Amino acid sequence: MIEVQTPDRKKTILRTPIQRNGYEVVRYNGHYHQVMGGIRSDYFLSSIERVFGNAEDNLNTGSTMKLAKLSLFAVAVAALLFATNAQAQPMPEAPESTRKTAAMEILKKTPDAVLIYAKGLCCQSCGIGVRKKVGKLNFVDVFRFNTGVELHPQTQLATIAIKKGKKASGKSLGKAIDEAGYEPVNLYKLKGGKLVVTSIALKK
């Protein structure tokens, strides 16, 4: 034990110092204080008690950290579930004028691509089947976007990446979209800076 002065320097107490966080500290009034001073008779306690925290808090640090990690994990899972649910929510059918405007903007920014409009492409999860079928076409560049397809649920459009030197076949795209479980309607592409819309609806 050593004699140390309390932080207010009003009295001297006997305490056994311990090592905590690389410092020599003693417990006083429920907190750990650093032992200051270099001469035994002049030892005193630091008033910065919170550097070491409440004694009971220190004992529970491990449990607190585990609880904090679990809380963060729970928040992350909830956020993921919320995002997934939001993506799965179906979008209302967009008017054709809105769809054409969106198609023009996308094609101007995306070279070597076409867009298709299919009824039922109203959420991100719709792209799973579309990518599986469209990705098998020999003119589709599966190394761009997500397996060659980028979905736009707000307008029921899908951007299809086309390999350089290849031409998109509206008939093949229409068949692939149909096999994926959706109703193909139109193909959009740029020609001479103008939007060209071609029907790819299958004959019934």
Descriptive overview:
The chain is an alpha+beta fold and 204 residues long. It folds into 3 domains: 59 residues, no CATH class; 30 residues; 104 residues, Alpha-Beta Plaits (2-Layer Sandwich). The strands form 3 sheets. The chain has a 5-stranded antiparallel β-sheet with strand order 8-9-7-10-11. It has a 4-stranded antiparallel β-sheet with strand order 3-4-5-6, with no helix packed on it. Strand 4 and strand 5 form a beta hairpin. The N and C termini lie far apart (96 Å). About 9% of the residues have low confidence.
Name the features.
alpha+beta, Alpha-Beta Plaits, four-stranded antiparallel sheet, 11 strands, 27% strand, rod-shaped
Q: What fraction, in percent, of the residue positions are helical?
A: 25-40%
Would you tell me which CATH topology of the largest domain applies? Answer: Alpha-Beta Plaits
Strand line-up in the sheet with most strands: 8-9-7-10-11
What's the average pLDDT?
79
Count of domains: 3
Secondary structure category = alpha+beta
Total number of β-strand segments? 11
Second rung of CATH, namely the architecture of the largest domain: 2-Layer Sandwich
Our estimate of the beta-strand percent is 25-35%
Distance between the termini: 96 Å
CATH class of the largest domain: Alpha Beta
Can you summarize the main beta sheet?
5 strands, antiparallel
User: Rg to the nearest angstrom?
Assistant: 34 Å
The low-confidence runs, each spanning 5 or more residues with pLDDT under 50, are 38-42, 48-61
Element pattern in H and E: EEEEEEHHHEHEEHEE
Q: What is the helix tally? A: 5
* Shape field: rod-shaped
